[in-house]
Amino acid sequence: MSDVAVIVLDVDGGEMLRACLDSIAAQTLPAAQVVVWDNSKTNLGFAGGNNEAWKLTTAPYVALVNNDVVLDPDWLATVRQAMTDSVAAMQTMFRGEEAAGIDISDGTIRQSLEPAWGVSATAALYRRDAVGERPFDPRFFAYYEDVELCARLHEGGWRTVVLPVVKASHRGSASASILGKDAQRLRTRNRYFVARLHRGVGRIGALLWEDAKLLVRGRSSLRGIVQGLLTRL
Q: The whole model's pTM is what?
């Protein structure tokens, strides 16, 4: 009997969702439970939607899989087998993508394989007794909530691991259009939230310098910076 539940958060996924669910159904290690949380009627964001879906699971391990991900048939077996006692979260690499995990070594927060400080919730397996009953801080709504979770896990003495094997395909930012202009604001704001909540995970000075350069190219949000720095947490 499998000890893993799988959660897929969806907003009008259509054929993309079907491909994701088909790949979950084809796993060599069958999931004990698959929960699809529909965020269409009331969009609770990535954080809120996954938190609600998490309440519906009881398995000791829970995989979060984005609706724009297609898993290789042995993805679940691979991450579950590699989940040792000290590891709280595990992911693999994605086909055609050079980056998989999270890197904070330069004071910013970016995707990277080496060094991989944390894992991305795009497709990852989590240990329930490490994460608890609410994986994400709902204040984040969307973006960088998985970074904040990794910070809490590390502070609790747990490890997070990116396996250097390709076991999934990821379409990438397929749901960003739903948030419209809010996507850029949230991406900007939430990095400062992480840096303020967890010492050493992102540095305010480094984030400001990066955003100053990104603003010139229209790839950051001044409103997001202000909210990130001044919102009461």
A: 0.95
